[in-house]
Design brief:
about 130 residues; mainly alpha; two-stranded antiparallel sheet; 4 helices
Length: about 130
Amino acid sequence: MTRQKGNIEFVDQKIEQKEIRKGSVWDLFDGSLLTRETVVRQLPFVLFITFLIILYIGNRYHSEKVIRETMQLQTELRELRARAISTASELEFISRQSEVARMIEERSMGLHEAVDPPVKITVQKGRNGKNIH
C-alpha cells in the first residue's frame, strides 16, 4: 500500500510539472502556446474584445475631434456676435437724424431739412366708386 501511495505521489508531481510547463515562456516564443486547444477556443472572444478596443479608440478620437470643432465654432460665434453688436451700434449711430443731416451737409447734396410738417393727402370717392380729383 505504501508503494501505491508512493506511485500516486510520483504521478501527481509529474502532472504538476506538466501544468507548470504549460505556461512557460518558451512556449510563448516558439508559438506552440497559440496552437493549444484552450487558446483556439478563446480566439473568437479575443477577436471580439480586440474589435471593441478598436471601436473604443475610434469613438474616443471622433469625440475629441467633435469637441475641438465645437470649441472652434464657439470662439467664432463669440467673434461674430461682437462684430454684429458693433455693426448694429454703428448703424444706429449713422441713422440718427442729426447724423444724417451732418452727412448731407458734408457731401453738399443740396438737400435741406423740412421745416413744415408733412401733409396728409386724401382722395374722395364719388358715388360710382371712382376717385374724384
